[in-house]
Amino acid sequence: MGSNWRRNLGNVRSFIGNSMGGLRGGSNLASWAVACTLAYFLWVKPARELRKEQEERAALAASSDPYRYVEKRKPIPDPQKTGLIYGKGRQTERSEG
């Protein structure tokens, strides 16, 4: 029973090794480095550049129209208990006693 945890640890290590493609050592590290680099240049960097371009376009559009309406106040929350804008609030029944 003392070697049960060792067997479980070995099973977990082999599962992790197999899930990562079965590569070990330097080749495993190199393959992960290549995969992460490709992922960065194919997905992360273009998404960041697109977001930056959209923010620049939005800033340019906002500065080009000086008469554009901009909301400067936060909306007032609805004071009713039901959360509805219209109608009566929730009424509780009172017991006369």
TrEMBL record:
Ranges that cross the membrane: 29-47
Region (Disordered) location: 70-97
Keywords: Membrane, Transmembrane, Transmembrane helix
The name this protein goes by in its record: Uncharacterized protein
The species this protein was found in: Amborella trichopoda
